[in-house]
Amino acid sequence: MRAKSNILLITVDDLNYDSVGCFGCTVDNITPNIDKLASEGIRFTNSHVTIAVCQPSRSTLLTGRYPHHNGARGFEEIDTSVTTLTQVLSQHGFLNGIIGKEDHIAPKEKFFWDEYISTYNEDNGFGRVPELYYQHVRQFLKRAKNEQRPFFLMANSHDPHRPFAGSDDEIFYFGRHTTPDRTYSPEEITVPGCLPDLEGVRKELAQYFSSAHRADQTVGRILDALDDEGFRDNTLVLFLSDNGMALPYAKTNCYLNSTKSPYILRWPGRVAAGTVSDALVSGIDFTPTVLDVLGIPPIVGVDGKSMKETILCGSQHHDDIFTLFFKTNNNHVTHQALSYPMRCVQDKRFAYIFNSWSDGNAVFLNESTEGLTFRAMEQAAETDEDISRRVNFFKYRVTEELYDYSLDPQALCNLAEYPEYQQLLIRMRQRMHEYMEASQDPLIDDFCRKVYKDLT
């Protein structure tokens, strides 16, 4: 691809990987536009973001560096010394634009935006009106056409982030309810295996899926704008979710439902329509990949590596990946940024999680713990022993977790204490230590003190 080609990155906010039709979701007509995009390009079935919370996930995408290398461990700005993807693209004449979630890419001046459009306001429907995204994208593309410049556009839906469509939280945040094109009933939805099938869970999931469907409509209208301005054939389109759904055992954790992302790439003339790749890929690779396909020299010191050969030749990419979590946001639920350091090493089958914060007393708290789902789980836990164990594990965890995702993708059975898995546990500890050491992870001393001391 020549450096004059264009890049369109579309993100949706807090969409679980399995909430997409082409990734296995059985909810009726949930994501027709995303499914169509997948049919026109390549769909990655083993794709993960590096950290499962909004701002650090996006900061990692646009720097190619782990959060402890770029400075944005939580809801902070990246370090001023870090080179960003859009900084390099600006130096090569690109028109850079961001629509929505712009405050989650900070500081503004490090990203060299030529168009900087906020959608989280009343005039823009709090980032939840697909038609307004169509208008903003067309406006940006007209500018690129008039200035005869290649472009990088990051268009970010606020759906299906909380508050979900029809929820009481919308009144708290917006002062009104939003209006999705389709409202799902509790009977129409599928309950993920990481959650119990309870009335309150179904009610909140119905609101979430109504928001997810609207996110899909936003994706469709963004792509319509690209077509209507005549940029379809010379634009590389990339689509992903920044992390999993804002429900227990998903967002702000290190589980499969936390970091696995529905990653799709459409590259007209270069990638065959309907391609499916099982390569293990990571959000840390986004920046080096974009620069490589554009023929621009890489940024020195990034942690990721280009996926170009994987995209073009179907090769494998990583044998395993390193994902992380540091802290939650300061919101009306947490009332401050709360530190819950977690690390995960996973390959296509197994995942090992180190919970540095778990000590039997500290209680995990995030935005989902005040939602209908967790409240329903806590109520059911009073009379149901299985749900009680599930609630308590979410709140307190243990230092080490080990899962076989080929048999247990919902992380229901922790294998770390099973005698037959001790050799695997040792190997995964060793691999995590290698990742921590190579990335100069500040958690390495704690890891060695708590679980790795017998192996050093």
Please write out the topology:
Layout: E1 6-12, H1 32-39, E2 42-48, H2 54-61, H3 67-70, H4 85-91, E3 95-99, E4 115-117, H5 130-147, E5 151-156, H6 168-174, H7 199-228, E6 235-241, H8 256-259, E7 263-266, E8 275-282, H9 286-293, H10 308-313, E9 321-327, E10 339-346, E11 350-355, H11 372-381, H12 385-396, E12 400-404, H13 422-439, H14 444-452
Parallel strand pairs: 1-5, 1-6, 2-8, 3-4, 3-5
Antiparallel strand pairs: 2-7, 6-7, 9-10, 10-11, 11-12
Helix pairs in contact: 5-7, 7-11, 11-12, 13-14
Structural description of this entry:
- The chain has 456 residues and is an alpha/beta fold.
- Helices cover 33% and strands 16% of the residues.
- The chain has 14 helices and twelve strands.
- The strands form two sheets. The protein has an eight-stranded mixed β-sheet with strand order 4-3-5-1-6-7-2-8. A four-stranded antiparallel β-sheet has the order 9-10-11-12, with helices on one face.
- α7 (199-228) runs antiparallel to α11 (372-381).
- It is globular and about 65 Å long.
